[in-house]
Amino acid sequence: MIKDITLGQYYQTDSIIHRLDPRVKLVATVFFIISLFVVRGFTGFILAGLFLVFAIKLSKVPFKFMVRGMKAIIFLLLFAVVFNLFLTPGEPAVSFWKITITWEGIRLALTLTTRLIMLIMGSSVMTLTTTPNNLTDGMEKLMKPLGYIKVPVHEVVMMMSIALRFIPILFKETDKIMKAQIARGADFESGNLIKKAKSLVPLLVPLFISAFRRANDLAMAMEARCYRGGDHRTKMKPLVYKTRDRFAYLGMLIYLIITIFADRMIPL
């Protein structure tokens, strides 16, 4: 399960999506998420799905690698589907014993599941095609206007960047600890839910200790190098918009307009 989580990882390859300015990818991801929550019918979801497949194709990230990251949210998807199927009132579609599944519940479950899957995959396209350094620089540039209202933009972005960097590291550390404990006879698979939860306690303790140790080492390394955040820091590779970035902005705007218009005009 741990190795299937792709959140925070970077897939290195040469594609037009990789070469885009990180600000473009951040804004495009926000536009895509907005489109998922604005559309009300399956016409909009079909267009959003086609756009997502097109973006994945351009990114040259293997589709299997993208889908593999969905395994981590299977429980959340199942919970959302069951919750909406059995607790949504409306016209009955299937009834057995005291349980009734309505047509409204089926539609809501399909809508929510589709929205959640495309949201995760759309966000993954951004993180898999953008290095943590570029992602940090892009967020800092986009959030710069917040500095006028005394928001510590650089510090906030730095914390987000460090958290994003630590995600794959902690996953690898968790996998290493699990394998070491399994070799010593630990069992994380068998038993009921309560037993499985108890079996994770010996795993969480060394994981927290390792995380605090890494955080302390990082703080000492930054202090030893006299790191000081702020507006006066220069960038080795400053972000500059290119022609392809402007076309990407235009393409996202056209996609958003067409998707919303088609969803309203062709309801399904």
Structure report:
The structure is a single chain. This protein has 268 residues and is mainly alpha-helical. It has two domains: 1-130 and 239-268, no CATH class; 132-237, no CATH class. Helices cover 68% and strands 3% of the residues. The protein contains eleven helices and two strands, in the order H-H-H-H-H-E-E-H-H-H-H-H-H. The protein has helices at 16-19, 22-38, 42-59, 63-68, 74-87, 103-128, 132-142, 153-183, 193-199, 201-224, 243-265, and strands at residues 92-96, 99-102. Strands 1-2 form a two-stranded antiparallel sheet. A hairpin with a 2-residue loop joins strand 1 and strand 2 (99-102). Helix 2 (22-38) packs antiparallel against helix 6, helix 5 packs antiparallel against helix 6 and helix 8 packs across helix 10 (201-224). The longest helix has 31 residues, at 153-183. The chain is flat and about 65 Å long. The two termini are 36 Å apart. The mean pLDDT is 82.
